[in-house]
Amino acid sequence: MPHFVNDVEEIRRRAAQKIEDGAVTEGYRGDKEKTIEILNDALATEIVCVLRYMHHYFMATGVHGKAVSGEFKEHADEEREHADEIAERIQQLGGKPDYNPKTLLQRSVSHYVEGETLADMIKEDLIAERVVIDVYQRMIEYFGEKDPTTRRMIEHIKSEEEEHASDLADLMFIVDPHTGEDEGEDPGVDPLQKERGTGPMESQRNQKSGKEQKERQDDKKPVKEDSRKAPEPFAGRGTVVEPVNAKKDKKKGRVA
Question: Are 58 and 65 in contact, with CB atoms under 8 Å apart?
């Protein structure tokens, strides 16, 4: 501490002069009012993301929709946590978190798009996440060393937004953009193969279908009898069939 503090009493005096400023001291090198304005825009962005994700959570129905809806809900909860972090930082800087619903969409960099299909929802969420990631990167560069506390907060939020984008990108390859059905293909697959029907999954389905068709055709073919096989004895009407034990007794000279 002695390396950084030459006059503790002077620092104490300055801190007591503007005690109402809370966490903001004379050592704060950023533009406080500008920082609060930027953070309120980020707050609006996070709130809009929460609303969009919650709408998608409730509207994602069906077998595939229910599997994806859990991801929507998880993202919504994390976006809500981001909003709380930002609001708390605004308050620390002496500002007021702006929750005014009338101006949310005007201040948000993320759009509120509901989407008609499950694929639309995933796509819109992915676009929004990519926009937010780019904007937050610019915020990080702006705050730099002038406001390291705010910078670190935005860096943390940005890292989670990148995880959201990665999750949604994976879902784009699981859900068919036209039918919403499960494709289950790896992101590295040539997208043109889907249209041509020559992808790995399509080839496997075609091979399986051809094999099943051949088996069905084989089942329909009549079974040919072996002409070399000796005919089995036939006991017609009125024929007396002797018991097995009686035949053995005859051979040994016994009388049944």
Answer: no
